[in-house]
Amino acid sequence: MRISKYIFLSIILLWRVTTHTYAYSIHKIGSENGLSNNNVVSIAQDRDGFIWICTKDGLNRFDANTFKVFKKSDIDNDGLSSNVLNYVYADKFDDIIWVATEKNGVDAYNYRTNTYKHYRHDHTGANPNTIIADGVTQISSDSKGNIWFATYWGGLDYFDKETETFHHYNQSNIKGLGSNYNWTIFVENDETIYAGHVNDGFSIINKKTKTAINFKHDPKNPSSLCDNTVTYIFKDSQNNIWIGTRNGLTLFDPLTYQIKNFKNDPENPFSLSSNYVKSILQTNDYKLWIGTDGGGVNILDLSTFSKDKNPKGVCFEHIGASLTSEGLSSLSVQTLFQDNFGNIWLGGYGGGINFVPNIESIFKKISYLPYVGNTNSLADKNVYGMCVDSEDKVWVANSLGGIEIYDKERKIKSIEKISNQGDQWSAS
């Protein structure tokens, strides 16, 4: 390889990197910062702006500096019913945080009065006005602020806050409902409710007629639902219904019932990174974020997306795990949330919280992180100079590590030896 002498003389201290991937600066927050547990399953924001983080060992309130942890009280009833939690929902009308537990019903915490109400199923049958089951998987609400609960084995429950009465929606009174076992719920409007089932696809419930239509995976029909385990249901600003499953992402047209599926293709680097979809979010800049278990985050630009396009030609951007600020703390993304300030919060198993501030960095950071698999690491901690050649490649004088050449953020060559041959330099 031959290069001109001047290239070593044009040294700059900083350079802006343009890249085809999304350059986010990700802050990692975990138990070392005060979080009660690094297994994060749900995130919400209350009307005062505080962030609430639901974990498998307690509830946390974050004020941007410190955590306040809420747990079950062994002394009295003034605390959570359980520390093993599934979901947190911030009431849009009242100063209430609704907390779904794995086996102990629902807690309603009034953060203004610091008081709790506990809702448990009456197994004796003496009181029919109780929640249908104690295993609650997700919480939502209608336009009037009344609360919907998805339960693991009892169907769905509708809670009228004014009368404090529960209305049960399950296979005993909803004709066509696919199952009583549910992972997720989506309230499209006051009349139409989507239920994502544990093993039986998803159902669309008409609250007025008390009927439902069930959709399942058919192994003989590639245009059917990806999988019968439905983990998340989301409606974007273009009225597309996105359904996350254990084996891919489904795009559902509620008018025609047409289905298109997106799956991981090992030979296509722009396909879905993992088929196990756990959470879906549309951000303020019209990006669809898809959280997966085992594949990090996938990002789809809705401003250029067309549902008429072949799913195999749709490109997803990816954010994987990395020790640097450019990656997540874990490939598990169980929950996604965007706060009132446009910041994005991600939580998953083992990784705590990943926080993406609503200010995109104009710089791409390249660090000395020589762990196995990181082919883009600098060769040495010390950098004595940098320059950009005529092809916009960045050359880094990397102390004893020699010279590293980067194409955007990707290292394309390492030079360990340079020799002078007359008026030319040779590098190898």
Structure overview:
The chain has 428 residues and is an all-beta fold. The chain is built from no helices and 35 strands. It has strands spanning 2-3, 27-29, 40-45, 51-55, 58-62, 67-70, 85-90, 96-101, 106-110, 115-119, 136-141, 147-151, 156-160, 165-169, 182-187, 192-197, 202-206, 211-215, 230-235, 241-245, 248-252, 259-262, 277-282, 287-292, 297-301, 317-319, 335-338, 344-348, 352-356, 385-388, 394-397, 403-407, 410-415, 418-421, 424-427. Strand 20 and strand 21 form a beta hairpin. The radius of gyration is 26 Å and the shape is globular.
Round the mean pLDDT to the nearest integer and report it.
89
Number of helical regions: 0
Sequence of strands across the biggest β-sheet:
2-29-28-27
Judged by helices, strands and strand pairing, the structural class is mainly beta
Number of strands: 35
Over all CA atoms, what is the radius of gyration? 26 Å
Condensed summary:
The protein is mostly beta strands and 428 residues long.
Question: What labels describe this entry?
Answer:
428 residues, mainly beta, four-stranded antiparallel sheet, 35 strands, 40% strand, globular, disordered N terminus
Topology at a glance:
Blueprint: E1 2-3, E2 27-29, E3 40-45, E4 51-55, E5 58-62, E6 67-70, E7 85-90, E8 96-101, E9 106-110, E10 115-119, E11 136-141, E12 147-151, E13 156-160, E14 165-169, E15 182-187, E16 192-197, E17 202-206, E18 211-215, E19 230-235, E20 241-245, E21 248-252, E22 259-262, E23 277-282, E24 287-292, E25 297-301, E26 317-319, E27 335-338, E28 344-348, E29 352-356, E30 385-388, E31 394-397, E32 403-407, E33 410-415, E34 418-421, E35 424-427
Antiparallel strand pairs: 1-35, 2-29, 3-4, 4-5, 5-6, 7-8, 8-9, 9-10, 11-12, 12-13, 13-14, 15-16, 16-17, 17-18, 19-20, 20-21, 21-22, 23-24, 24-25, 25-26, 27-28, 28-29, 30-31, 31-32, 32-33, 34-35
